[in-house]
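EI: anyone free to look at a 198-residue chain?
SC: sure, send it
EI:
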Amino acid sequence: MSFISRFSIFSHPLFFLPILFLSGCTTETEVDSRFSPVAPAVLSISEPGTRIPAQARFAWLPVSPEFHVDPRLKNVNIEQMVEKAIRRSLSRRNYVMQDEAAGADYLLAYVAALENELDDNAILQRFGIVPGIMASSADNQKMEKGTLIIYVIDARTGKQIWRSALQTLVTLEMDDAARQSRINAAVESMFATLPGSR
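SC: here you go
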């Protein structure tokens, strides 16, 4: 069979009928205002078979929280807000956050940064996980893409069993109550993927 005979269907008049029909059925799509085109994106990975039981004890991985301070947010205690949100989400799942690492079942750490301090390539190299929202600080000088990564290590084995990354546009000027509320929601969406948290 020759190349031309195998594709001779394209010369048949009925071949173009569906194309004409489809071209007449285009509609204008309206964006649902409930969903922002730059809504937070969350991507999580857990070790297969992992299930964290109720009443499990968590503690901060010593010298691990990593917050990249941006001069534009120097008067905002983002670190404290993130840690408050993490404690809140753990408590909602019937987990215990203790002050000392000794005796903890799981060690928890996080990294928070704006894109100018930690871009997608660096995140991928360090953590192997990037939600990848397509947003640029050039879009709006009052906002910049930010990333929050939370990860959990099994204290007994020393193995990382879960990590979650969230990216969103961070509003640089916002009152503390509104910012805490947004951070709470962001962290909660991440912990919704924690194995055993359902």
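EI: The two ends are 59 Å apart (CA to CA).
SC: 👍
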